[in-house]
Amino acid sequence: MAIEDNYIPVNELGNGVTVNFGATWPIFAAAYIRVYLEDVLTGVQVLQVKDTDYSLVFSDAGFTVTFFVAPTSAKYVVIGRSIALDQTNPYKTSKGFDGAKIEASYDKLTGMVQDLDDARQRSLVFPLGDTTSITLPSAALRANLALLFDAAGAPYAGAIGSGATAISAAMTPVVTAATLADARTAMGLGSIATLNSVANTNLSQMAANTVKVNATNASATPTDLALAASNLLGRGSSGNIAAITLNPGLDMSGGVLRGKLVQRVRTELRTVSTGTTTIPLDDTVPTNSEGTEMLTAAPFTPTNAASKLLIEFDINASNSISDQILWGLFQDSGSAAIDAGGSPVGGASMQKVRGRYEMTAGSTSATTFRVRLGSPTAGTITVNGIGGTRRFGGVAVSHITITEYLP
Fold first, then answer.
1. Per-residue pLDDT at 251 exceeds 60
2. Which of 11, 114, 237, 337 is an S-S bond match for 286, by CB 3.0 to 4.6 Å?
3. What pTM value is reported for the model?
4. Domains and CATH numbers, the chain
């Protein structure tokens, strides 16, 4: 028979339905065909067995392999030919010319050449005239090494550089994909592999400083939501997605952030001041006619009537006599102290007089807190000094601080 130059091994992806695979090149004998199933992800080929995995029909015009179970899309069907490298036709001297026997021998030789040419095309080949040696180390010496090329272009077995990372079997289909869409599909992204602005017009043509949102229901068309300066994207009081402006102390749903510090105002006094009005050490509430107002806070305006206000003061003070320094904390023009206490200070000594008081703001109007100091018996109270004279060159600072916390 005539042999055409048409030997190309079969390589087709299964689909779970097709069972017949074939070609129009001859296999010469059933023993010469090789049928494999190749794993799409790993590339591992498993040789199939005739009459166990498939049946075979062949002739000079080609062959058909019929699988008993249709290969799935996870497998490639690979079919090739491997002719035995032998000569089994005996030739004897005779009077006649046995053309059929001679042609069969030549056919077999032609098939062998085609097989070898196919193997050559799948091999590492140097260009014509290249005299580079292809000798590699033994298997033991090249184990766990890579095929590399030196500065002269000669191949050798060596370690991959420290900056390189081997591609895992799982990522091989992604790296070897012909297109980006094929790579996304290999990663299992499905329809996202073809995601683009043409197919998703709802995501295109957006106005500046906007986001696309679906604020009502699953079937609604996304709309532009404009975000102004200082806006955050969140869920509004109705539960729908909205642009939210965070006022002091508000969270993204418009609710109050409990315990959040809203503001703090500190008033300092560095000068010397004195007072001689006493504060009785008895069981009455100090009044604004007792003691001397030594420290006055700047007006403070709460942001929330339910806020907690923490009033703290720290005063450098001395008493001209060996007696306590008593104090009263007053709010606005109220005549009665809202808090009171005392500090034991001996004569001619300067110490810290401290107080700490917490209350509910009650309103959002401006309010002023005042601290009055006095001795229980006749004496002179000096702030930021002793005996009416400044101490520490003005760095001894007395202060009062008001802090607002949301409840």
1. no
2. 337
3. 0.41
4. 1-88+95-122+169-195 (no CATH), 202-255 (no CATH), 261-405 (2.60.120.1340)
